[in-house]
């Protein structure tokens, strides 16, 4: 049978992270995402089990096509998650579910594709600057790991091209004496101090441990949420400094990304951590570190930074767009 847009529906889309797997349904062309659900990845032995649970729970038939964004590099048929133990064959999942097409892309590639569709209430600007229409856009987001992507203008100004890379694993860059000491501690512990070692949920704990070591204070076992909560409530000086460092490193990385891509369309910050900081981020070193690039401070001062605060994962919409664009 020849494929037409109508024969590619219904569609299943997903946003798969190291902690949560989010799914949604597209019944037909032009229909909105529906039956959005979030499943804990730790509750399922494999991706296909989570997918089958979603379809059964929501009473859905086998979809014709499926696209997922996953927190992992996708370089071939076999996918082994970096921050979880799920491992699968793309063609194997396609065949087991009877799909006509199964598209697997990096989760931040999917999120980048969704950026043009965001409404005003889905983002909050931090600092100054105004986006330049049709210019490159940067995207990064600390969560279970650190995702990095962006959108570049397509050839001849037609459409956009999503960046597909692993920028979360670039080398972490210090900018002052305290950051030097913290990065040194991370390097001694991990060998390579990547940006993700600081800019992620586990990275926030790494920063807390490093700060305690620098100041000769005994660290107590804390989860990422406990570090941020103690910092936001100003009940633990080491947690406060860890979160300040987190925001500083995040601003530095965002500024580097803006320079690398020429992201005059703005830099967006997603993931599960930054949106939870609220106005605390505004008073942190984030924007100063973003702009603080010496001779290029005036250039960066014109580039806006936005925190994503959409209630439904935008990466689901990006995965849906990917089926038509990739």
How many DSSP helices?
Answer: 11
Which band does the percent of strand residues land in?
Answer: 15-25%
- Helix amount: 25-40%
**Pairing-aware structural class of the strands and helices?**
alpha/beta
| Estimated radius of gyration | 20 Å
* Domain module tally: 2
| Sheet of most strands | 6 strands, mixed
Q: Strand sequence of the main sheet, in spatial order?
A: 8-13-12-9-10-11
Mean residue pLDDT: 94
Overall CATH architecture of the largest domain: 3-Layer(aba) Sandwich
Question: Quick one: CATH class of the largest domain?
Answer: Alpha Beta
Which spans of ≥5 residues are poorly predicted at pLDDT below 50?
A: none
Number of strands: 13
Series of secondary-structure elements, N-terminal to C-terminal: EEEHEEEHEHEEEEHHHHEHHHEH
CATH topology of the largest domain: Hexokinase, domain 1
Shape: globular
Give the N-terminus to C-terminus distance in angstroms. 21 Å
